Amino acid sequence: METRRLRSLQQPSHVQRLLEQLVLRGRFLPKGCDQVRDPSTLPPQLRRILAGEIEQGHIWACWANNFQTWLFTGELSLTLSRERRAPVLRVTLYDEMGELKETGAWLASREGTWTRCGE
Fold first, then answer.
1. Domain ranges across the chain
2. Which residues make Cβ contacts (< 8 Å) with residue 6, sequence separation at least 6?
3. Which of 118, 112, 117 is nearest to 25 (CA)?
4. Neighbouring residues of 104: CB distance < 8 A, sequence distance ≥ 6
């Protein structure tokens, strides 16, 4: 991908939308989850993780139901996006206890689908 386009994709609002699309289309969540937008409503362990992620410049998205919470953090990988000529997000998933559940890079296609890619 060309550098100018990648720089525009790197805007936090755009990366935020990409992360939300990945989560919603990637079948990470059971039905009936609500998006959490207010970090003060998160459990203390997730607020601590979130503070560190934000300090590193990462974006976040969170969903919860009556029993579980899923915190996703991520960033756009310029290197992988250039190599693959499409946006690639590095994403980390934490559970409600703040435990790391999954990490990986995800490639967005022009059709709006996401595939996990090797780093």
1. 3-117
2. 76, 78, 81, 82
3. 112
4. 90, 91, 116, 119
The pair of structure tokens assigned to 115 is: 């595939």
Residue 3 has pLDDT above 70, yes or no: no
What's the angle, vertex CA 22, arms to CA 19 and CA 28, rounded to 5? 115
pTM over 0.70: yes
Q: What is the dihedral of CA 60, 64, 70, 71, to 10 degrees?
A: 20
Burial of 29 by CB count in 10 Å (0-12 exposed, 13-18 middle, 19+ buried)? middle
- CA atoms 24, 25, 26, 31: torsion sign: positive
| Cα angle 60, 13, 4; round to 5 | 120
What is the rounded average pLDDT for all residues in the chain?
Answer: 89
Write down the number of H helices and E strands in the chain: 4, 6
